[in-house]
Write a structure and sequence with these properties.
about 500 residues; about 35% helix; alpha/beta; 17 helices; six-stranded mixed β-sheet
């Protein structure tokens, strides 16, 4: 595989932002014909390294070589022209344009200034067939296809620009198992053709399924480069978190009879929405963690959004047991002590241009009304308390939240919810896209909140995580509730059988 030298070599890379050393003396090599996983906790420097490589940020110190020639990358266009292409977690193409237009936008074949549509469509078909093994109608708008197909189109666009290096940044976060297999098949084919692929993911199984080599960063520093087949998983985790592995210990499970002696907090009766979730009955008790398990598209998020009235139900209702009041709007939900932490933190969570402090106090300030301003001292005290409690890094409350890693942004959103002291906390994918250590912290936090009497509706695509924290699990399949499990019934085998329908 690596008979020749690296196609890409980064040596002694330093990058500093105001008050933050993002990268310190980082090295990275990428060989032709390999998949190289870049691993590290949130805040380890993975995103910064990629942004340096793609010209989003300039480097303060260090050297970048491509094909043994030193290069300076001043912009993403520079990177693209050098043969470095990136496909991001959120597909950044134009959903309303056709597949062919997305592949060749800005580079359409022309004659006398006019686009040669037939030639462009034919080129797109041939590219997708040859490189992606994908046969679709390239004249259809991109939005007509699944996220998995959109990812493949984004990769095809990257390859059409004669890429030597392909960067895949969390490409599997929104894909189901079958779609991941499809993507990995394409990656294997491209690797065998000699393409160098930099792969960023938080899924350990996927790292070992597809990667040849692993580079680990921690706190902006280079920890090491390893062949995947020679690095045991437990060592990988240890090197990533830089601490004893007790952070990954099995967390205490809820008692088998946990909910039987608890008071009912909220009850959904035949709540449903056509095209989203079939009518469901569900009770949540005080101090209980209810996990929603199921595949993508099973209706987990849709059910959570109905509990918060973020989407309007067309059957049934959700009522607070103590008052028998139905929840018909997010405003009512908030007034009744329900907090919702959305899976889409970019669009429905953080406010990019506000500080960590401002993001934390936002919901509490809104609940009090804008004419009852929270004093600056109280804002500072509350922000600092939650920064310490949740180990938010960097710890400066005046940092813009957009400059934090995804895991730390998620912790800020949790702090915002917790500051309102909710009776029910709805967590939709609270650990998606964040590192193992931060996941364990959030899981421990959820359990401690339940012990103090808070109820939690918990959603995660990682079944082990749902099993670990839940007192009771509701299994959804194809937008139907198919089973509830509690105590000793909660095993991976039982949940998998219920999800699969066997």
């Amino acid at each position: 595989m690596n008979q020749h030298g690296p196609v890409l070599q980064m040596t002694g890379i330093h990058k500093q932002f105001p008050g933050v050393k993002a990268l310190t003396n980082v090295n990275f090599r990428l060989f032709p014909g390999e998949v190289h996983a870049l691993m590290g906790e949130n805040g380890a420097g993975k995103s910064t390294l990629i942004k340096v490589l793609t010209g989003v940020h300039s480097i303060d110190q260090g050297r970048v070589e491509l094909d043994n020639l030193a290069i300076k990358i001043h912009s993403p266009l520079d990177a693209q022209n050098s043969g470095i292409s990136t496909v991001y977690q959120e597909v950044n193409l134009c959903a309303n344009l056709s597949v062919a237009e997305n592949i060749y936008i800005g580079r359409e074949p022309r004659r006398f200034g006019r686009i040669l549509w037939k030639e462009m469509n034919q080129n797109a078909r041939e590219l997708l067939k040859k490189r992606m093994n994908l046969e679709i109608d390239v004249t259809q708008p991109l939005q007509a296809f699944s996220v998995a197909v959109q990812q493949l189109v984004a990769i095809a666009r990257a390859l059409s620009i004669s890429a030597k290096v392909l960067i895949l940044d969390e490409p599997t976060s929104s894909l189901d198992r079958g779609e991941v297999v499809q993507l990995f098949s394409v990656m294997t084919r491209l690797k065998n053709e000699g393409l160098a692929i930099l792969f960023v993911t938080h899924f350990l199984d996927q790292v070992y399924d597809i990667s040849d080599r692993i580079t680990i960063l921690r706190n902006g520093e280079f920890i090491g480069e390893y062949l995947a087949k020679e690095l045991p998983r437990i060592e990988l985790v240890s090197k990533m978190i830089g601490k004893d592995l007790d952070v990954l210990e099995e967390l205490p499970k809820g008692e088998a009879e946990h909910h039987k002696k608890k008071e009912v907090l909220i009850e959904a009766t035949q709540i449903g929405k056509k095209g989203s979730i079939e009518p469901v009955d569900l009770i949540i008790h005080k101090g209980e963690i209810v996990g929603l398990a199921g595949l993508l598209g099973s209706g987990r998020t849709e059910l959570a959004r109905l509990f918060f009235a973020a989407d309007k139900a067309d059957s049934g209702d959700v009522t607070i047991a103590a008052s028998s009041e139905a929840i018909n709007s997010p405003r009512q939900a908030i007034d009744q002590g329900i907090a919702f932490c959305s899976e889409n933190r970019k669009l429905e969570g953080i406010i990019d241009d506000l500080t960590v402090r401002e993001n934390i106090i936002l919901a509490l300030q809104a609940s009090q009304g804008w004419f009852k301003t929270i004093s600056r001292k109280r804002q500072d005290d509350m922000a600092n308390d939650y920064i310490r409690a949740l180990n938010i890094n960097p710890s400066n409350p005046e940092h813009l939240i957009k400059n934090l890693s995804g895991g730390n942004q998620q912790k800020v959103l949790l702090a915002r919810c917790l500051l309102t002291d909710p009776n029910l906390l709805i967590l939709d994918e609270p650990t998606r896209g964040i590192d193992i250590g931060a996941k364990a912290e959030i899981q421990r936090l959820v359990l401690s909140l339940a012990q103090k009497g808070m109820s939690v509706l918990f959603i995660s695509s990682e079944l082990e995580e749902v099993l670990r924290v839940s007192h009771r699990i509701v299994v959804l399949r194809d937008r139907h509730k198919v089973q509830e499990m509690v105590g000793n019934e909660i095993t991976q085998k039982n949940v998998m059988k219920a999800i699969a329908g066997g």
